[in-house]
Design goal:
The complex is a heterodimer of chains A (186) and B (259). In chain A, helix 2 packs antiparallel against helix 5, helix 5 packs antiparallel against helix 6 and helix 6 packs antiparallel against helix 7. Chain A has 8 helices and no strands. Chain A has 2 domains: 35 residues; 149 residues. Chain A is mainly alpha-helical and 186 residues long. By secondary structure, chain B is mainly alpha-helical. Chain B has one domain. Chain B has 8 helices and no strands. In chain B, helix 3 runs parallel beside helix 5, helix 4 runs antiparallel to helix 5 and helix 5 packs antiparallel against helix 6. The termini of chain B are far apart. Classes of the chains: A mainly alpha (186), B mainly alpha (259). The interface between A and B is large, with 68 and 57 residues.
């Protein structure tokens, strides 16, 4: 058996095993996504500690979500924002919220095909915000966070604050029976 | 040309399974949703009948050319089926999901590059250069197919796009078969195409067995109906519309800050 043949056999074995492992891992993930329900998805949003995020967000926006124009706005320094957000861990919380919205869209498209338009728009929006946060994470990993942070972090955090607060408000004011437990948990 | 009992068994089983599957696609009206997949199954019926007749009445050379001509056509149709499955999954609103376009390019480029690398490593023993091309070409296409189906699972999960029930069943069947086919084609490449190669024939029969199992899976799964969807409550619909409006305004704010 030639050396090249040995390489070929080893490469094919690695290739097939890798494909099977990837397929199995993501298939399990898709099965888990299929088993999620509305209540469980929304409950995941409540697990977010948003107090620090709120402080960062309200530095540039008001309670209604409008951009603040007063002199006291945008007073936080990047280092303070970084500390309040909780660094990388805080950003991971934000990413987790995006994942919930993507899962929410998945759930809707799977079980309520008539809601496909809204679900797809929601999914795309969540993915775009996820991408924004991803840029911050990449900047953090490459040591260029300082420059990127002042530009992207606070608006992204503010957007997240508003989004999660509004999602929570939606189910608080909603009268769906399946959301009752979640409202109690709040 | 003499046909063995096993040859006849595989041919008749393949023809029968394809005809049953075509009937299922017709009776359940699945051909409307999966026209390319239906064409793929129909072409297999035509191929089976044609090859049988050519093998009985034609020469060895005519069988060879007919077999590989259909093989190329079959590969093209399989790629078209992949396109159909991707289209049904990643175009929920009739256009390709914009967040996945870059991922598609990476997936296709990466799949071709990896498959090409593996194919380059293969060094099949064959008497004719054409046989080498056929063995390598078949291996390349099976490697690409398996990557594209696994990539489809990954993209769907990462993007949060669910598979419709029958799309998932067709993709699972073709995906599993493609991975098995990679191993079989790797075996073919290792053994080469030599006269009276029993091992080569055995591997071909193993592939046919895997494909017959795949057909049986499709017949059962495509006969079954997908689970009923739920009726969206009116208040939930309202919530979603408001949620979408809010997310849109948040995004606008982010984009404005970036500019």
């Amino acid at each position: 058996m030639s050396t090249r043949t040995v390489y070929f056999i080893v490469a094919v074995a690695i290739f097939v095993l890798t494909l099977i492992a990837i397929a199995f891992y993501y298939y399990r993930r898709s099965q888990k996504s299929s088993q999620k329900n509305w209540e469980r998805l929304l409950k995941r949003l409540t697990a977010v500690d948003r107090s620090s995020i709120a402080e960062v967000a309200l530095d540039i926006i008001d309670e209604s979500g409008q951009k603040r124009q007063d002199e006291a706005s945008a007073a936080l320094e990047p280092s303070q924002i970084w500390k309040l957000v909780g660094g990388l861990k805080g950003l991971e919380v934000i990413e987790a919220n995006c994942a919930v919205l993507v899962d929410l869209a998945f759930y809707l498209q799977q079980w309520y095909p008539e809601a496909v338009v809204v679900a797809e728009q929601l999914r795309l929006s969540a993915r775009e915000i996820e991408w924004q946060v991803g840029r911050l994470r990449s900047a953090q990993e490459t040591g260029k966070l300082e420059g990127a942070f002042s530009m992207y972090a606070q608006p992204a955090v503010a957007a997240y604050y508003l989004m999660t607060r509004r999602v929570l408000a939606l189910y608080e004011e909603g009268n769906l029976a399946m959301l009752a437990d979640l409202r109690n948990a709040l | 040309m003499q046909l063995t009992g096993l040859d006849l068994l595989f041919w008749s089983a393949g023809l029968g399974a394809h005809l049953v599957l075509l009937s299922v696609l017709w009776i359940r009206r699945r051909y409307k949703v999966f026209p390319i997949f239906t064409a793929f199954i129909f072409s297999n019926v035509v191929r089976t009948v044609t090859l049988y007749l050519v093998r009985l009445l034609g020469t060895k050379a005519s069988y060879f050319y007919t077999f590989w001509s259909f093989g190329i056509f079959d590969t093209v149709l399989q790629l078209a089926v992949v396109y159909e499955m991707y289209s049904l999954t990643f175009r929920p609103l009739g256009v390709w999901a914009r967040d996945l376009r870059a991922a598609f390019i990476w997936l296709v480029t990466g799949s071709i590059a990896i498959a090409a690398g593996l194919t380059w490593l293969a060094a099949p023993h064959a008497r004719l250069w054409m046989q080498v091309v056929i063995i390598k070409g078949t291996f390349f296409s099976s490697a690409c197919m398996s990557e594209l189906f696994v990539g489809m699972i990954v993209l769907a999960v990462k993007a949060g796009l669910p598979w419709k029930t029958h799309v998932a069943r067709i993709s699972h069947g073709l995906g599993v078969y493609s991975i098995i086919d990679v191993l079989i084609e790797a075996g073919h490449s290792y053994l080469g195409l030599q006269r009276d190669s029993q091992a080569y024939t055995t591997l071909s029969q193993a592939r046919m067995t895997a494909y017959l199992l795949c057909l049986a899976y499709w017949i059962v799964m495509l006969w079954r109906n997908a689970p009923d969807s739920k009726k969206l409550p009116e208040n939930m619909r309202g919530q979603l519309v408001r949620l979408q409006n809010m997310v849109d305004s948040d995004l606008e704010m982010i984009r404005a800050r970036e500019r």
